[in-house]
Amino acid sequence: MKRINALLQDIERNGHHGTGHPELRKA
Question: In angstroms, rounded to a whole number, what is the distance separating the alpha carbons of residues 8 and 2?
Fold first, then answer.
């Protein structure tokens, strides 16, 4: 659950900047 929370936080923080996240790139 912690990993999911961390990912959600990173997406919210980096989502605006559109940073290339490995997890998001896989999708």
Answer: 10
